[in-house]
Amino acid sequence: MTFQTHLQPSGHSFPIEANETILEAAIKHGYTLPYSCRDGVCGTCKGKVVSGQVDYGKYQDSTLTEAEKTAGMALFCCAKPLSDLTLECREVNAVKDIPIKIMPCRVHKMERPAPDVMVLSLKLPTNERLQFLAGQYIDILLKDQQPRSFSLANAPHSDEFLELHIRNISGGAFTHHVFEQMKERDILRFKGPLGTFFLREDSAKPIIFVASGTGFAPIKAIIEHALFIGVKRPMHFYWGARKLADLYMLDKAKLWESSGIKFTPVLSDAIAEDNWQGRTGFVHQAVLDDYRDLSEQEVYACGAPIVVEAAHRDFTTQRGLPNEAFFSDAFTYAPKK
Ligand SMILES: Cc1cc2nc3c(=O)[nH]c(=O)nc-3n(C[C@H](O)[C@H](O)[C@H](O)COP(=O)(O)OP(=O)(O)OC[C@H]3O[C@@H](n4cnc5c(N)ncnc54)[C@H](O)[C@@H]3O)c2cc1C
Ligand code: FES
After folding, report:
1. CATH class of this structure's domain 207-330
2. What's the CATH fold of domain 2-91?
3. pLDDT in tens, 135-148
4. Ligand having the closest approach to the CA of 42
5. Can you tell me which atom of ligand 2 is nearest the CA of 78?
């Protein structure tokens, strides 16, 4: 059965099948809505159903509360239509003309800057390039398993190799393979670019970047892109990790300071050998301590879901950050098959 979907305020319309999620149908018809995990966990795709009924689908309870459902909200990556729909949501025009491709690539180089972080350089076939926006991610396609998402850590201007920063997950099938079995010259397949985490270049607001762990990867891509195109907005980068070794590209982040980007590393569990004299505690708390008012800022947050969630909640409720000035990719686990 086919229904009609109307988007507000853009006025765009598209057909949607009863078995399609709102996000799938929108993308199929050339309209990109904000999204990240596509699994009902991160909340990036939350929007309002102004009229019509939806099947809310399967999602994490804390991501969409009963009160939000009563207020008409739904997660567009999970919700399917039960009638014609009118939806209120932002569209993300910057990515709509970028083709999403499935491509092979070769593992060109593997480097391990920290015990549980692997940096992969991936080479595309000769004469192939991947068009993407700094901050987007790709899905590594695996035989008989759900795809695994990883952010591109390189900026588009430096695209000879695609760079991924992969954290070893205890019990994680793919990351275990990367650390234990993968070799240089192995072949992978991926789909991308995906997601709507990228620098909003039409804004003049100062920027705060918040990364936890390998959440550094897309922030690195965005900062390198911003420096390349000469963005003049004030930028402050907070990088949180447990101990010093987890700040696996500390020298790079420190180098950006000479280009005017303020850098605040924050450790939550520094060990004695770290001899850490810097900031301690949770990385989002460091932002709260430094900024009493975020109403005129933009925040780009990436990494552990708990950090991204806390940043969104506390920045919007305690520091006046507008919801639409918060951009994030929460590094959720791949959905179970
Ligand atoms: C948009 C996006 C971008 C991301 N970018 C990055 C990035 O740049 N770098 C990065 O390091 N990570 C990133 N991630 C996170 C990464 O995709 C996940 O950590 C991924 O699931 C790791 O794959 P894996 O196969 O190693 O672990 P998985 O096999 O997916 O396992 C993850 C966890 O679930 C548990 N688990 C798995 N199956 C079961 C089961 N049947 N029952 C119980 N428990 C189970 C495992 O023990 C493990 O703890 C990103 C995620 C998203 C959504
Ligand atoms: S909850 Fe829908 S994209 Fe993450």
Report:
1. alpha beta
2. Ubiquitin-like (UB roll) (3.10.20)
3. 999 999 999 899 99
4. 2
5. 2
